[in-house]
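Notes continue from the previous slide.

Worked example: a multi-chain complex. Inputs as given:
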Amino acid sequence: MAKPRPVTGIDPGRRLRPNARRIMAVRIDEVHSYDGLVADPARVTELHDMRIACKRLRYLLEIFAIAFDEDLEPFIAEVRGLQDLLGDIHDCDVQVPMLEDHLAWLDEREAAGARAVVAAAAPARPRRGRAPERAFREFRGRLDAARRADERIGVHALIARRRAEREALYARFLDEWRRLKRGRFRARLERALGIR
Amino acid sequence: MARAWDVPGLTGRARFRDAAGRVIITRWREMMSYRDGTLLGEDIEELHAMRVSSRRLRAAMDAFEGAFPRGSFRRYLRQVKEITDTLGDARDLDVAIDRLTRLVPEMAPDERPGIEGLIDRYRDERAAEAPVIADLFARLDAADFGARLERYVERHTGVSARRLAPRPPEG
């Protein structure tokens, strides 16, 4: 996660507004520093960092709104919308590897279960009076019970869902980001805060 | 979502230092108001509300960092970050369990065992989070963290938690 850029020139003895302007000018710039980078859907880290930058900016707008004459709620709503989209993309980016790990975990569980069945079914010599076919069927039944292959179907389906969702969410994010830029979001926000 | 508490006496013409003290103390008290319910663990909304409040507190501390000496403030910030992260781990599992549970009826019959198996695994992991949360608050109590934070904030902003006495919103 990208650390927030330091803000210089804060004077705690001055009023809220001039200090808030200094802080928010840096945080607005941080959000826009990802422009261009996030045009590539594979930039998972940058998309996540942009989400964090949006979150920081949104909270600041909420905290410092009291110090400004202009209603900042429309700006907060726009940043929140962007943050939510980036958050949903991040959830997919985190969940797919987690689900893949879960598949590996199921494999390990199955292997351990199968090893236990094989170990239990390996007598030094065949038991008297049991047909080999019946013994094999019993062994097979225990082995199947130890397998967890049926769980993989659902996990694979979930991975496919998350990947499709991610693609759709990214397209929505890109549309939203382009809309904000076309609407001169940054300039409007900076004007509302008296930064420019 | 739990409503944020109003910050007593905060106006747009406040000094940055004074606003820092008022907002941080209010958010700290707001977060801790959910502590008992979170530890009880009977209603997942208590933990959710505490987590949301902890994020508000964290954001307030980030916003007003400039009102405090950097080195000492970072120690308090790190502790609050640990609270947010610990609550976040449990909350993420609550959300995942809820989402997956709602997803099961939408899935094909042969896909359901996989989702149900995943829910079981997340439930086990979630159960393991409860003692982690209890341990965190036991450590905070042992270190008298809340009182130390409030004294620290008062020393650097002049805002006394006792005089500020923030209260939850009515209704």
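Summary box: Residues 73-120 of chain A form the longest helix (48 residues). Chain A has six helices and no strands.
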